[in-house]
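Data deposition worksheet. Section B asks for the primary sequence of the deposited chain exactly as it was used as input, without tags or linkers unless they were present during the calculation. Section C holds the resulting structure in token form. Section D is free text for depositor observations; keep each observation to a single sentence. Incomplete worksheets are returned to the depositor.
Section A, Depositor: J.P.
Section B:
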Amino acid sequence: MRGWIPVAALFALLALAGTLAADPPMTNLRIEVKSLKDKPVERASVVIDFVEGRSVVKFGKKIRTHWETRTSQEGVVKIPPVPQGKIKIVVIAKGYQTFGQIFEVSEEEKTIEIKLNPPQAQYSAHQ
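Section C:
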């Protein structure tokens, strides 16, 4: 009976190691940037940062968690899979207010639609 205890412990240790080495869940992310009139905003700068969530280390290598890109003519950005959890998206486009928000991603595929506001009038306290 004593011979089974070390074997069972070995199998439990291997199962635990397999769980720890498993790939973290990832999301294929698509971001659509539009104006309030539903027109695509092309060449908008999009910055995506992984904020919080599951492990971002895979087989000792750190998974990329920061992207800087621009939207296409259709106002779309596609990036490689991101770790599931919270991500921060910042969008900067000429002629629009800067957008920034944190999103929770927990699906395999996710499309996030962002509507940009036109700039607001400027006010001065010195008149």
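Section D:
Helices lie at 4-21.
The beta strands are 26-35, 45-53, 57-58, 61-62, 66-70, 76-83, 85-92, 99-105, 109-116.
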